[in-house]
Amino acid sequence: MSTVAPSLADDELRELVDRERIGARLTAYSTALDDKDWPLVEQSFATGGIVDYLEYGGEQTGARIIEHLRGGLGGLDATQHLIANLAIELDGDRAGAVCALQARHILGTDCYTLVGRYEDALVREVDGVWRLARRTLRVFFTEGDPDVFMRGVDRLVATGGEEAELAIRWRDSVTLG
Prior knowledge:
This protein has a single domain (10-69, 79-142), classed as Roll (Nuclear Transport Factor 2, Chain: A). 39% of the residues lie in helices and 39% in strands. It has helices at residues 10-35, 38-43, 63-73, 147-159, 161-173, and strands at 45-52, 59-61, 78-91, 94-107, 110-124, 130-144.
């Protein structure tokens, strides 16, 4: 006697695909940050997208998101943004997601590690692609030298030009402690 596995209903299949695409979007964002691939970071956000990094620069929208990230991370030697424990709630063309975060920020031999979570609102845009409508960073604890950011900013300021301006704006927007 053979048993035939039941087939997935269309709505179940769509939910699985949506969850996979959302997870891939969040992973791509983290990888893009680490690669300093600013166009890919920008593509991760919906039109009018918002990030709220709280004490790390507060709320940013639109083009200011990329400028803020370039100013704060651009002068570092490396970063590593790891996400895990992804939980997704789907509601049609909208979704909520929460994931654990460990972000390492490296300059020379110094490292500043941030542990927390991202709380996200996503939308499926007209092109069918899931993008971040809002990303909020909740920090649970940090370890290491937060001055790596300011030394990275100093490095960018020394180069002059657009990167220097972004770094100065980033420095003026944060309250590290």
